Amino acid sequence: MKEYNPEVVVKTFFWTILMTVLMSQAHASELMHRSLLEDEKQNNTFVWEETQLKPFDELIVSWDAERPANGSYLIQVSLLTSEWSPWLDYAFWGACDQYTFKQLLSDQGIQVYQDTIELQNNQAIGFRIRILANEGASLDGFRALHISATDLKTHAIEIVPLENVSVNLSVTGFSQIALPDERSLRLCSPTSTTAVVNFLSGTLNLSPIEFANAVVDSAFDIYGNWVLNTAQASHKLGKPWHCLVARLTTFSQVIDQLMKGYPVVVSIRGPLVGSARPYESGHLVVVTGYDSESQEVFCMDPAFPTDDLTSVKYPLNEFLTAWGRRKGIAYIFDK
C-alpha cells in the first residue's frame, strides 16, 4: 500500500484548485505546477519531468523561491519531441544578479530566448526542468516550479459572456513616467508588479525603482522579462504566495482572480482607445476590476504621467483585442 503523505495531499489539492480556476477552458494552453518536497530540497539538484502533454511549441517556466543569500540557481530545460533535446540554460537567478539566455538548437529547431523556449516547425509533448543550486546556494528556499505550455499557432482569447460582475480592487497607482529615473519609459513591468506586491502584502511599501533593479535582465538589459518579475514578486511576498506567468484563454480567468481579491498583470499591445501611448512594442498594466453593465475593464496603467491618473477604464472589446495581440500573457498571484 502506498504510504500516506499529508504534505503531498495538501500540495496536490492547491495545484488542482489553481489549475481548475485558470485552465478550465485550456484549449491551446496548459498550466502545470510542481512543489518541491522537503526531502527534495536537501539536494543541490532537482529535476521535474512530464510527458504525454498536449503538443506545444512554447514553454514558459516560472518559479517560487527565496532569492539565495549566497550563490545562485541555474534553471535548465530539455524538451521531448521525437527524442529528448540536450539541456538548455534558461535562467540564472543569484544573490546579486539575474539573467536569461539566448540559444538555438538548429538541428531540432528549439530556441531559448529570454523568457520563452520555442520550437520552430515542430512541437513537443514533454519537458524536463532542472534546478542547480551553485556556489553555496541551497534548494531549501525553493518552493515550486510552474510551466505554461502553449500551442501558439492555435492560441486565441475566447470571448465568454460575463454577466453580473462588478469588482474593482483598490490598488495604489504608480506612474512609471513620474519616477525620478532616466529608465522610466522602460519600467512598465516592474512598476505594475510593484503595485500588486504592495497591495497583496498589505505591509510592503516597495519602490518601483528598487524592484526594477532586482529584475533587470543583465544579459539583455531589459526590465520586462516576465519570469524575472514574477520570481522577484514571489521572493518579496514569500509563503504562502505563488507567482507565475501564464497564457490565459479567457477574460473570465482574470475575473476569477479578481473575485478572490488578487489583481492580475497583463501584457497588451496597441492601438488601444484611451491609452496614454500607442503601446506598439507591448506594455504591462494591472487589471484591477471589471463592470459587466458598462463592459469596462478597470486598470492601473503606469504609462500615464502622474500617479493619480493611472486608474483608467478600457472598453472590454478594445482591451481583449490588445491583450490578444500578446496572446493572453498574464502574471498570476495566488495563495
The rounded distance between the terminal residues' Cα atoms is: 32 Å
Shape: globular
Order of helices and strands: HEEEEEEEEEEEHHHEHEEEEHE
| Spatial strand order of the main sheet | 1-10-3-8-7-6-5-4-9-2
Level-1 CATH class name of the largest domain = Alpha Beta
Average pLDDT taken over every residue: 93
Helicity range: 10-25%
What is the SS-derived class? alpha+beta
Number of helices: 6
Radius of gyration over C-alpha positions, nearest whole angstrom: 19 Å
How many extended strands? 17
Looking at the structure, the CATH topology of the largest domain is Cathepsin B, Chain A
Major beta-sheet overview? 10 strands, antiparallel
Which superfamily, in CATH terms, is the homologous superfamily of the largest domain? Answer: Cysteine proteinases
Instruction: Give the tally of structural domains.
Output: 2
Architecture per CATH nomenclature, i.e. the level-2 architecture of the largest domain: Alpha-Beta Complex
Low-pLDDT ranges: 6-17
Strand content: 25-35%
